[in-house]
Specification:
This protein is α/β, with parallel strands linked by helices. Helix content is about 35%, strand content about 20%. It has 14 helices and 19 strands. Helix 1 (about 35-45) crosses helix 3, helix 6 (about 245-265) packs across helix 7 and helix 7 packs across helix 12 (about 410-420).
Length: about 450
């Protein structure tokens, strides 16, 4: 096996040099040594331009074209190191299609459109590698009255198109479901699955049937692209979806936990900092951190912007009680600055609020830690920038680790509920993301919900 190792050279302007050795989270598996060399060359040329902290192992199937023999080799890899994601890249003539079918959900495979992997251009190898990674979070099937994540030999597969930026989530909450019903003009009685695609397209599934598709842009208004008049009268027992997927989520939890432990073993930290917004991703990161580190070492930091929706304060307090923890609060003063600016709203081009929020976070960190390890809830589907960031990276003088980087929103939702942590009630209203009420990242969808929300509160 050959390891692809990059050590990021921190600029001399930093106060100290941060170097972390952590065990790879991803192993790429190809058939032969020549294919391996092609993959290594691809990773060197593509990932280096984004960040040099990636750790990716590249392994081979010893050149075999026999499916059962190859499957046995792959199975042994997974048994030895179950705390990784395995991406199998195959050529059309490798004869190993379906190699991952009976293996766990952390093993995926794709076949490239050339005879051998080494016949492909680096750009094609990289594109199919990223596509394969997205399969980890985008495979889902419907069985009678519930959804099953990952591989499933029964039921009907939901045709989610693999793409590095695609995401999916459950529209949980009666008011959330009603919003989709009103928008599409059809009655939806069960919790639907929303597949969030590129170009602002959202596909709505009830069971395995696509009810319709909608464009939700940042500005303007939501626009219905298609409505399928055939709406299944299904019963989605969401409690069953939660329970059935416990074993599935344990696989992903093991990988996330091992990553955190691997970093902790090589980094001399004094506190584990979790920037906690009260959103689903940072809450999942907090739950994971508490499973790995001593509670005395974990310090959640809530940055109070001054323009938070009231439910966020209550949610953070309630979850802290459920988890049996305390948390630090740092005031960012965005409300004061907003007033000073004549109530000028921040924009995508001028996010002055973000600068204040980050400054407040780092003030809080300096108060409680000298060598912090920062655990964040960043995920691939949030932006291109986060997609290409490695799971572990330097951030100024600190080290930042993203244990749920490869998860979907649906996985985050199920993981929290499986661990007895409720979702922020704003998600039940229909919010896809949660921020302060002047957040420039809100799309027209969130703005409409916020308007209804504040009208109902004032009436």
């Amino acid at each position: 096996m050959t390891y692809l190792h990059y050590i990021y050279k921190v600029p001399s302007s930093y106060l100290r040099r941060v170097v972390i050795e952590y065990e790879p989270v991803v192993t790429i598996v190809v058939r032969s040594k020549k294919d391996r060399d092609a993959v290594l060359a691809t990773l060197n040329s593509h990932f280096k331009q984004y960040h040099e902290w990636w750790r990716i192992e590249v392994a081979t199937l010893h050149g075999t074209r026999e499916l059962e023999k190859a499957r046995k080799i792959l199975h042994e890899m997974v048994e030895v190191k179950p705390w990784r994601y395995y991406v199998v890249l195959l050529g059309k003539e490798d004869g190993l299609s379906g190699i991952d079918e009976i293996l766990p959900d952390n093993v995926v495979s794709v076949t490239l459109p050339r005879a051998k992997v080494r016949n492909c251009r680096p750009s094609m190898i990289f594109r199919y590698f990223m596509k394969a990674l997205s399969l980890i979070r985008l495979r889902i099937s419907w069985i009678e009255d519930h959804y099953v994540l990952g591989k499933c030999l029964r039921g009907t597969k939901v045709p989610v198109q693999p793409h590095p930026l695609h995401d999916m989530y459950f529209a949980i909450g009666q008011r959330h479901v009603e919003r989709w019903s009103r928008l599409l003009g059809v009655e939806i009685r069960a919790i639907p699955l929303i597949v969030k695609l590129i170009h602002d397209v959202h596909e709505v599934y009830v069971g395995s049937v696509r009810v319709g598709s909608v464009i939700i842009p940042d500005v303007d208004v939501s626009r219905v692209l298609e409505v399928c008049h055939r709406v299944e009268d299904v019963s989605h027992v969401f409690e069953k979806t939660i329970e059935v997927n416990r074993d599935k989520m344990e696989i992903h939890e093991e990988i996330a936990v091992h990553l955190l432990r691997s970093v902790a073993e090589s980094y001399d930290y004094d506190r584990v900092i979790v920037p906690w917004s009260g959103g689903k991703d940072s809450t999942a990161a907090l739950v994971l951190a508490l499973k790995v580190f001593s509670r005395d070492h974990v310090v959640p930091i809530f940055v109070d912007t001054g323009v938070e929706i009231d439910e966020v304060y209550k949610y953070v307090n309630d979850v802290a009680k459920i988890l049996g923890i305390s948390y630090e609060v740092e005031y960012a003063g965005i409300d004061v600055e907003w007033e000073r600016r004549g109530f000028e709203l921040p924009t995508h081009e001028n996010r002055w609020c973000t600068k204040l929020k980050i400054a407040a976070l780092y003030r809080a960190i300096k108060k409680v830690a000298e060598r912090p390890l920062i655990v964040v809830g960043d995920r691939d589907t949030e932006s291109l920038l986060r997609l290409f960031r490695p799971p572990v990276r330097p951030h100024g003088n600190y080290v930042q680790v993203a244990p749920i980087k490869f998860w979907s929103t649906a996985m985050v939702q199920l993981y929290l509920l499986q661990n007895g942590v409720p979702l922020n009630p704003l998600y039940l209203e229909g919010f896809y993301r949660i921020g302060c009420y002047i957040c420039p990242a809100y799309r027209c969808w969130e703005l409409d919900i916020a308007e209804e929300y504040f009208k109902s509160r004032s009436s």
